[in-house]
Structures are given as structure tokens and as C-alpha cells.
Amino acid sequence: MALDKSTIVRPVLRKETVPVETLGGEIILRQLTLSEMLKLGNARHSQDDEIAQVLAWCAIDEQGLPLLSLDEWQAWGASCLAESLQLYEVVIKLTGLEKKTTPTG
């Protein structure tokens, strides 16, 4: 029997709440969408902004809106590199991507 809109189970992006002491509390991280994964895949030759870009897309508030801009994540990451890498790895795990070396490693 063919599915119709009323019988399809709607996909929901996986999320995880993570404590980030240097930001003063917990943040919500979500998995990457298909288009975001494809954008990252197409930009593999230039990984300079990958971590900050992933955080700009996937660190969200309770309404699902971006928590900080790309420039703000760049500035925060400059002084909190270890935490940036940890948050990036959470997003990669939520997305189901294989374990890989981070862009800086």
C-alpha cells in the first residue's frame, strides 16, 4: 500500500543539550541537514571555516534559531578551541557521520 502524507512518519533532527561553561550554560546542538552535509562535502578543499560553520548551523536556541553567527563562533573558537572541537564532534555524532579527523587535525 502506498504511503500518503497522513501516514508518513515525519523525520525529526536529532538534538543534544551540552553544557558549555565558557558560554555560561547549556546549548542545544542538532544534527546537520542533508543540504548542510552536501555543502560541507563540496567545500572539503577549504576547511578553514568548517567548525565555525557547523556550529553556526547547528547550535540553536529553544526556538530552533541559530545561537550565534558564523563570525561570533569564529571569535569564540579563537579562545575556546578545545570546546569548539568537542561541540563539532557532538554534531558529527548526531549526524551519524563516521568518526573522522577534525579539520585542524
The succession of helices and strands, N to C, reads EEHHEHH
Total number of helices: 4
How does the major sheet shape up?
3 strands, antiparallel
Taking the alpha carbons of the first and last residues, their distance comes to 49 Å
Count of individual beta strands: 3
Percent in strands:
5-15%
Global Rg = 15 Å
Return residue spans where pLDDT drops below 50 for at least 5 consecutive residues: none
Give average pLDDT, whole number. 88
Specify the structural class.
alpha+beta
Model description:
41% of the residues lie in helices and 13% in strands. It is of the alpha+beta class and 105 residues long. The chain has one domain. Strands 1-2-3 form a three-stranded antiparallel sheet. Helix 2 (50-58) packs across helix 3 and helix 3 (70-79) packs across helix 4 (81-95). The longest helix is centred in the C-terminal third of the chain and has 15 residues, at 81-95.
Which structural traits does this protein have?
105 residues, alpha+beta, 3-stranded antiparallel sheet
